[in-house]
Amino acid sequence: MKRSDGTILSADDSEFIGELSEYLEVLGNSTRLRILRLLEKEAMDARTLSGRTGISYENTKKHLEKLLGAGLVTRVPGLGRETSRGIHPAWNYLPVPGILQRIQEDLGVLASVQGNRAPDSLQQRIEGVRRQVEKALGTERWMLLVIGGEWDGKTIPLPGPGTELGRGREGGISGEGGITRIAFPPSYRSVTRLEKPHAIVRTEGGGCTIEDAGSRGGTFINGRKIIPNVRTPLKDGDRIMLSQGDFPVTLLVLESDTEGERPHE
To answer: Which domains does the chain have, with CATH numbers?
Structure first.
């Protein structure tokens, strides 16, 4: 699905609905997702992929054409595997750089944004494809999607058990002793510095909670300020705001479904 210049299209737009349906059709296939995962590790030609997946060469080519048409993979000239007739030129396929993360971001936004007024059937289809993609690509069960500012669109996995959120001199993600530290760039200057930190997210027993660590600007869930130093449960689609000043951090909570969908070819 092509990215626009930032204009949000309504689900009433027939062109948008058509492009979205094609995008979901490409991603809603477990075989194509498996191909993307394999190509992430190394570029391969169609015959090598056919051998790795156990799918016929003809069907492998069809899946690759779908992925090419959706702009998810590209191809470069290379050499095929050796046969009794020697080694011959072949197209080697590889994912577009960063495409796996972009797919997850796209589907997370589409599933969670309520303003698109999509029909229930389309919303259900988006959510079903999202669950299938998350299972196939090995996504963490809980993630945060940054909305607005310097890190707009950045996905933050929550591997657990604890993730500290705050502002740093330089933006980045680090970990030590089982604790992940998310340092938002200095441009989010309404957020408490990470040394404090502003808030702590915990993933335990399949659930997810957030605790404001006594920040100056406060922590808000769906517009309501939470009590400091108390763990507050989070659910899929919740909107977190770290401070309500001029330069806060807004985060969308994304939870994957570990059941997934039945694979099909």
So the answer is: 13-138 (1.10.10.10), 140-255 (2.60.200.20)
What would the pLDDT profile of 36-92 be if each residue is shown by its tens digit?
A: 888 988 899 998 888 777 788 899 999 999 999 999 999 998 876 656 666 678 889
Is residue 211 within 8 A of residue 230, CB to CB? The reply is yes
| Helices and strands counted in the chain (H then E) | 6, 14
Q: pTM of the full predicted structure?
A: 0.52
Q: Which residues pair with 210 in a beta bridge?
A: 201, 232
| Angle subtended at Cα 66 by Cα 61 and Cα 67, rounded to the nearest 5 degrees | 95
| Residue 71 burial by Cβ neighbours in a 10 Å radius (0-12, 13-18, 19+) | middle
φ and ψ of 22, to 5 deg: -65, -40
The answer to whether 96 and 72 have CB atoms below 8 angstroms apart is yes
Using DSSP's 3-state secondary structure scheme, residue 117 falls into coil
State how far the Cα of 129 lies from the Cα of 88, in Å rounded to an integer.
37
Q: What residues have CB less than 8 Å from 7, skipping those under 6 apart? A: none
> Residues 242, 219: contact at Cβ < 8 Å?
yes
Question: What is the DSSP pairing of strand 162-167 with strand 179-184?
Answer: parallel
Task: Give the model's confidence band at 228: pLDDT under 50 very low, under 70 low, under 90 confident, else very high.
Answer: very high
